[in-house]
Amino acid sequence: MSFVEYSEFIQEGDVAIIFLGHDSMMPVKVQQGAQTQTRYGVIRHSKDLIGQRFGTKVTCSKGGWVYVLHPTPELWTLNLPHRTQILYTTDIANITMMLELKPGSVVCESGTGSGSLSHAILRTIAPTGHLHTVEFHQQRAEKAAEEFREHRVGHLVTVRNQDVCKEGFGVTGVADAVFLDIPSPWEAVKHAKNAMKRQGGRVCSFSPCIEQVQKTVEALANEGFQEISTLEVLLRVHDVRSITLPLPDFGSDQPLETPTDTPVPSNASVLCKTTTPPRDMAGHTGYLTFATKPSV
Ligand SMILES: C[S@@+](CC[C@H](N)C(=O)[O-])C[C@H]1O[C@@H](n2cnc3c(N)ncnc32)[C@H](O)[C@@H]1O
């Protein structure tokens, strides 16, 4: 199993996602002899997981069943242990697209945080790209490096435990794209520029507050970045419901024989699926500021 390649069978040491329902999942590290408790009973790794296909429906000890899914960056974002605030798929999708990431891209990122965005970047740039990720909190940096190894993407990423605002990304002139998710991104803009290739490249900064955006945009403009734009991505997930609608009764197709032939009222109805827009929706997460480094 690897987060950047699909494997068919579950093996010892893999991460699998136990899917109990649309709003209930849990990640497990598959180990010989280990057991995982769920509300449907116990899953025995040796018998129920190892050697089975990813996607298998597994019956737990109390008779309920779960699906065992192959991990993906999307599922990891929903299931990872939170050590910090994280980025979610709505923003991540925009970031990977607008940074023009592709297999082979070299990317610099700070901070690593819980590694939510990092996993998505790694899948996009594999098998030949590289991610340089900088995190100044030592335990977070170590934990992220450990997870990257466990998820078999360690060869695609270098984790540096340093302050990006003071020491930069640890590389010069190599990055196609830079991403910043730190409280003072404007202090890292110079380092972002140094890390980037001479010819162009894209930068993105995520900030929850508009005052942070203002300072970052000013720093980007001062460093000669172009095409500076800020956007906010809001997600509206529609609910699907089944409803029964009465069929209108337009009377008989046949002309009435006599005025006394009254049409029989119809109770006919039809079951349809319909969607409703959400009454509540997730609010503001943050602003995404993008810019392009001009060729020199
Ligand atoms: C909000 S989290 C990043 C979350 C990450 N994008 C994710 O999706 O999981 C911000 C991280 O930046 C780190 N950080 C803040 N300032 C930093 C700096 N100057 N240099 C390096 N890391 C920094 C924090 O320790 C924290 O772990």
From TrEMBL:
Domain tRNA (adenine(58)-N(1))-methyltransferase catalytic subunit TRM61 C-terminal, chain residue ranges per copy: 64-293
Listed EC numbers: 2.1.1.220
Keywords, ordered alphabetically: Acetylation, Methyltransferase, Nucleus, S-adenosyl-L-methionine, Transferase, tRNA processing
InterPro entries membership: SAM-dependent_MTases_sf, TRM61_C, tRNA_MeTrfase_Gcd14
GO cellular component, one term: tRNA (m1A) methyltransferase complex
Catalytic activity: adenosine(58) in tRNA + S-adenosyl-L-methionine = N(1)-methyladenosine(58) in tRNA + S-adenosyl-L-homocysteine + H(+); an adenosine in mRNA + S-adenosyl-L-methionine = an N(1)-methyladenosine in mRNA + S-adenosyl-L-homocysteine + H(+)
Biased composition (Polar residues): 255-269
Region Disordered: start-end pairs: 250-269
Location(s) in or outside the cell: Nucleus
Keyword Ligase attributed: no
Main localization category: nucleus
Protein residues bound to S-adenosyl-L-methionine: S114, G115, S116, L117, E135, D163, D181
One Gene Ontology term of the molecular function aspect: tRNA (adenine(58)-N1)-methyltransferase activity
Listed GO biological process terms: tRNA methylation
Family to which the UniProt record says this protein belongs: Belongs to the class I-like SAM-binding methyltransferase superfamily. TRM61 family.
Subunit structure: Heterotetramer; composed of two copies of TRMT6 and two copies of TRMT61A.
Protein function: Catalytic subunit of tRNA (adenine-N(1)-)-methyltransferase, which catalyzes the formation of N(1)-methyladenine at position 58 (m1A58) in initiator methionyl-tRNA. Catalytic subunit of mRNA N(1)-methyltransferase complex, which mediates methylation of adenosine residues at the N(1) position of a small subset of mRNAs: N(1) methylation takes place in tRNA T-loop-like structures of mRNAs and is only present at low stoichiometries.
The protein, known as: tRNA (adenine(58)-N(1))-methyltransferase catalytic subunit TRMT61A
Naturally occurring in which organism (per UniProt): Oncorhynchus kisutch (Coho salmon)
